[in-house]
What we know:
The protein has helices at 29-38, 59-66, 69-75, 80-87, 100-108, 133-184, 194-287, 292-364, and strands at residues 22-24, 44-49, 52-58, 93-95, 119-122, 128-131. By secondary structure, it is mainly alpha-helical. It has two domains: 13-140, Roll (CBS-domain), CATH 3.10.580; 202-364, Helix Hairpins. β4, α5 and β5 (119-122) form a beta-alpha-beta unit. The radius of gyration is 58 Å and the shape is flat.
Amino acid sequence: MSNPTHLATDSTIGDLPSHRFQVSAETLGQVVAEKFGHEPDLPGVIIIRDSQVSGMISRIKFREQMSLPDRVQLYWNSPIGALLDFIRIPPLLLGENWKIDDAVQASLNRQKDLIYEPIVVVKQDRSLRLLEVQTLLLAQSQILAQANKTLEKYRAERQKYVARIQHEQARVLECTQLLESKQRQPAKSNTPSPQEVALAKQAQEMVQLNQRFMRTAQLISSESRQAFQATFQGANSICNNTEKILGVGKAIAKDLETVNQTSRTISEAIEQVRHLAVQVAVVTNQLGNRSSGLSQVSVEIARLASKTFELGTQIEQIASRFKLRVHELTEAARGGANVAKSVTIKIERAEMALLELEELISDKN
């Protein structure tokens, strides 16, 4: 058996050294006895029946039974399962993730004659291992020893910090007593002269005046910079708006030219309608109402009427575009007005700063 090393408070029984020895329930008792004889460190044997853990027989219980004369003849050439059925000791099965302290408590909670029976550890891969209770107790003892060392270390550090705090408290007390002693001493008379008072007052006024000058200068610089920037932006905006207004004016001129051309076309169409009307009248008088020529004239008049309707539609569209351009022109003018208003506000702020500076200089004079 090897002693467990590198254990911590969160170590589990899966971290401890264990043994692997399992046989089926049909294995002869002689085979188990020979295995115990060849490997004296084996704490017991796990009995498997139908791929399930049927039980566990410890080395001590096996020797107790085999030490009796009649038992050797009974179980030596018999299946080990028969001996297990006779002993009837329920095994303690624990998963490998059990904490060492919890496993110790589970082992000690068994019957007194079963406390030192080996524990069957079930691994995550479903394999089985035998853990000696002695190994478990040694591991717990090692963990407790490490915990005690840690506590002693913390206690030593705590004592060191306590001593340092006491030293600092003594220094604070000494400084407090010295301060109280200084305060109890009578204060010396240091009454300044009238000249010193006047000079101190003038110096204070000069400092305040200098501070006011600095603030006012900063205000003037900031406001002037903002005013100039706003003026520059306003000028650019006005130029852009001016170009936009010129562009809108050119577009309006083109639309008006189109309107004039459309008007002339309508006039020509009306003249044609009048001429055809005269022809219709002549043909009607000469040939009567059944003339085919009259029918052709009627078709032409219908075409001219359709053309006249289309021209009217174009005129309406041109009028709509004219309204839209006028709206754009209005918005551009409004934007220029807003820019001008912003520039005016910035200039007013700069003027207020200048007035404050002039008032300050006038008061001091």
